[in-house]
Amino acid sequence: MKHKAGFVNIIGNPNVGKSTLMNAFVGEKLSIITSKAQTTRHRILGIVNGEDFQVILSDTPGIIKPAYQLQASMMDFVKSAFDDADVLIYMVEIGEKELKDEAFFKKITNAKIPVLLLLNKIDKSNQEQLEEQVQLWAEKVPNAEIIAISALEGFNVKEVFDKIIELLPESPAYYPKDQLTDKPERFFINETIREKILMHYKKEIPYAVEIDTEEFFEEENIIRVRSVIMVERDTQKGIIIGHKGAALKRVGVEARKDLEKFFGKQIHLELYVKVNKNWRSNQRQLKRFGYNQ
């Protein structure tokens, strides 16, 4: 039996459903999902293994025009997705008409590898609108195979995955067959906490936040975690903590529940808030948090 393996990189504008699709493929919540743009900041690998295949999925940040150094670093992750892809997935949603960066769009239309253009959120459209969108994208990206999907509802997700396996090159596995992702445990703790902040705080607060898990001790029945929420200003620190610590407590309780599901163990989570002035524009701090690699 011939073995197939390869990198399948998912790109698109913010909020198009890339993380939902990857989680559906992997069967685990690896990428955090919220309704806010720029939820994904890193390039996250999800690995799906079968007897005769290994699909390495890559979820990247949504494509934006960078306004500060953190966003520029996020776009570097997207650029790297073109370098090692064996199959490129370009996700759009019903009603969308263009990619926010023309240079990225040219890379897609000139790609020498197979391109799957996934038209997502079709559960929010009718047949006439769907046909119009398929025609529009067929003209814009003639090198792509267009598949209509609903990542959230699971419509055509299996069909897309079967198509990916068909397109993969013959190759031995790149990662051990029991490996699910390339990220360490602390990364998922940080992302789970950040997801809760994205869900519960408004305006600039979620974008000024980074999480640093300083301690991770795994015992037989419990994992003890100490994480610091970094903000840029003292006023943001007060908002994160909330009246008598209520807002911070809610983040901690919700994150702990999700982490207990993810790790299958009891979690003891301690959360602290610190001011780290202008970390989003500081190259040294960005490197410390895993950007600018």
Summarize the structure in words.
The structure is a single chain. The longest helix is centred in the C-terminal third of the chain and has 18 residues. The relative contact order is 0.14. By secondary structure, the protein is α/β, with parallel strands linked by helices. Strand 5, helix 4 and strand 6 form a beta-alpha-beta unit. Helix 6 crosses helix 8. The protein folds into two domains: 164 residues, P-loop containing nucleotide triphosphate hydrolases (Rossmann fold); 104 residues, K homology (KH) domain (GMP Synthetase, Chain A, domain 3, 2-Layer Sandwich), CATH 3.30.300.20. The chain has nine helices and nine strands. About 2% of the residues have low confidence. Strands 2-3-1-4-5-6 form a six-stranded mixed sheet, with helices on both faces. It has a three-stranded mixed sheet with strand order 7-8-9. InterPro entries: G_ERA_dom, GTP-bd, GTPase_Era-like, KH_dom-like_a/b, KH_dom_type_2, KH_sf_prok-type, P-loop_NTPase, Small_GTP-bd. One of its GO terms (biological process) is ribosomal small subunit assembly. It is a peripheral membrane protein. Monomer. This is GTPase Era.
